[in-house]
Specification:
single chain, mainly alpha, about 85% helix, globular, membrane, Poly_Biosynth_Transport
């Protein structure tokens, strides 16, 4: 890997590592506090909320970042329609979320008050919080925006620790009450760090047709990119017994955390890909070779290490999570495919093919639903990890095939 990209990867891995460390602490506390039965239901409905919440800003967070980066004075023009768009779109998505949970995910057995708390948090509060983070990024406050992203997770970690120490009779209900408080506090703190306040309600307006058209592509990218990492937890709640779904949810969180260096590598490589991607095809082919080779080699080695170390996680999460090692080993099959799919998706976006990425990821979601359902019927609880592995590897293979064809054409020109 080229020197600047390697150095950038190390720096970004450190920053993202802090975020992952906080996530790991929260996962450990919440999982041990709830046990596999309640955690399976909680993870399923929370993942659905996160998936829908990615669509709430309807791409306005990306527009805000770009406009503020060009001219900070434009922030009020974008926020004037970004805030009401997020609230209105979020309201519709919140209704969809509650309906799906009540009609299709009743087996999760999550109280209605907790469902509402999770929905408001992920679909409204976190969506508004992303606007604040995007504004900081647009203003060039990169370190502050990266630290700001960790704030809701830090506050959730504190909240989870408090509930864990108190030992309430119903920990899920108690955690559900503090869940939105953490995000609301993070949002207030984020907005108050700006030199000027957000536009008041009387300054809000609806977006025009042109603005909606500009936002639509980014909105599609947001939800399709979130889908592969969230939909499987919701499917687990529907397809598996809740205790097994809890084991699966913990296992996928562990697997996702190990892809951190791949994410860091892609963030470091993106500026060069944007700059040279279609202008210098021969150099881009070399860079893509290094990106995919590094991602595959790292993820394969990590999968082997996790396979061997799987029994340790049974001990870390406690006796209630007995069997986590077997689930984790089946998920190791998906890890290299997951790393390659993430790399392919970022490369497609950098090369100016966002709708190809959306098509690829939506196809992958359809494959995940079909294969997970079919393989779970055929093979029981190991069918869902196998379905995830199939969808990840197929997305990576299709995307890589498209890129190889695309780059061979550009190289000949």
């Amino acid at each position: 890997m080229k020197g600047p990209i390697a150095r950038g990867t190390i720096r970004t891995t450190f920053i993202l590592g802090l975020y992952t460390l906080v996530q790991a602490g929260t996962l450990l506390l919440v999982a041990r506090m709830l046990g596999p039965y309640q955690f399976g239901g909680f993870a399923g409905v929370a993942s659905l909320a996160v998936l829908l919440g990615a669509l709430s800003p309807f791409g306005t967070n990306v527009i805000l970042l770009g406009e503020v980066a060009k001219e900070p004075a434009r922030r009020n023009q974008v926020l004037a329609y970004a805030i009401p768009t997020t609230l209105l779109c979020g309201s519709a998505l919140l209704a969809i979320y509650l309906t799906v949970c009540m009609l299709m995910l009743r087996a999760a057995q999550v109280p209605a008050t907790v469902l509402l708390a999770i929905g408001i948090t992920e679909i409204w509060l976190q969506a508004l919080f992303r606007l604040a983070v995007s504004e900081h990024q647009g203003l060039g406050r990169i370190a502050r925006s990266q630290l700001l992203k960790t704030l809701p997770m830090v506050l959730r970690l504190v909240a989870a620790a408090g509930v864990f120490l108190v030992h309430p009779s119903n920990p899920l209900l108690a955690y559900g009450y503090v869940y939105p408080v953490a995000s609301l506090l993070a949002l207030v703190l984020a907005v108050r760090t700006f030199p000027s306040a957000w536009p008041a309600p009387h300054q809000w307006r609806l977006p025009n047709i042109g603005e909606l058209r500009d936002n639509a592509g980014y909105a599609a990218l947001s939800i399709s990119a979130s889908g592969p990492g969230e939909l499987d937890k919701t499917l687990a709640t529907k397809l598996l017994p809740l205790p097994v779904a809890g084991l699966y949810a913990v296992g996928t969180r562990i697997i996702a955390a190990t892809t951190l260096p791949v994410s860091a590598m892609m963030e470091s490589a993106l500026p060069r890909l944007f700059r040279e991607g279609n202008e210098q095809p021969k150099r881009t082919v070399q860079l893509l070779f290094w990106i995919f080779s590094t991602a595959f080699a790292y993820s394969l080695a990590t999968a082997v290490v996790l396979w061997l170390a799987a029994p340790i996680f049974d001990w870390v999460f406690g006796t209630k999570f007995h069997g986590l090692d077997h689930t984790l080993r089946w998920l190791c099959v998906a890890l290299p495919g997951m790393a390659l799919r993430m790399s392919v998706g970022n490369v497609l976006m950098a090369l100016g093919r966002p709708w190809i990425r959306v098509t690829l990821e939506v196809t992958g979601l359809m494959l995940l639903i079909i294969m997970a359902t079919t393989l779970t019927v055929l093979f029981g609880e190991k069918g869902l990890p196998l379905g995830l592995a199939c969808s990840e590897w197929l997305m990576a293979a299709i995307g890589w095939g498209y890129l190889r064809h695309h780059q061979s054409i550009h190289t000949r020109l």
